[in-house]
Amino acid sequence: MKNQRIFPGIILIGLGAYLFLQQSGFTALQTLYSWPTLLIIVGVAFLGQGYSANDYESILPGVIIAGFGLHYHLAGKILFWPNNTIGMLVLFISIGFFLRFQKTNNGLFQAFLFLVLALLLLFYDKVAEYFGLLQNGLSLAWKFWPAVIILIGIYFLFRKKK
To answer: What is the DSSP secondary-structure string of 36-68?
Structure first.
């Protein structure tokens, strides 16, 4: 981390505000007195570090951690929010790669790869129902798609750079 004061500063301010509001008994924000709020505070600290200190590698973990905290706050409370935790994690990873790419021009392929995977995980049932293709041929492919992802990962690990 390039500028070491931003991350702990945001963590301490966020944690102090969280504890102060919790001890004050302010009931209007009662739903925020939970562990996902702590995830959001840590994620915002990473994002503050990433953008304020030009430490762009902190953007990805910031989006993932804050996004997961947001997901756990909203899942089951808002009707349109998906309950698919894995799909949402992959979506937050994709958003993090896109935001980091915006600053570093690095990681666009990974951003699109995670976005496609997130869309498959989040909307697979609706897409399969809409097209009605899953019954025979695609059910076999659906069983083995994790193996295809593993093979693509192995390819990226061992391919020679030109």
So the answer is: HHHHHHHHHHHHHHHHHS--GGGHHHHHHHHHH
Query: Helices (DSSP H) in 2-133: which residue ranges?
Result: 6-24, 35-52, 59-74, 85-104, 108-131
29 φ, ψ (degrees, to nearest 5): -110, 25
CB count within 10 Å of CB 36 equals 18
Joined together, the tokens standing for residue 115 give 């976005």
DSSP state of 78: S
pLDDT digits (tens, 9 = 90+) for 4-39: 778 888 888 888 888 888 888 777 777 778 888 899
Query: How many residues are recorded in the chain?
Result: 162
Taking residue 34's Cβ as centre, other Cβ atoms within 10 Å add up to 14
Virtual torsion, Cα 103, 109, 112, 114, nearest 10 deg = -100
Token reading at 49:
């570090």
Residue 21: how many CB atoms within 10 A of its CB?
Answer: 16
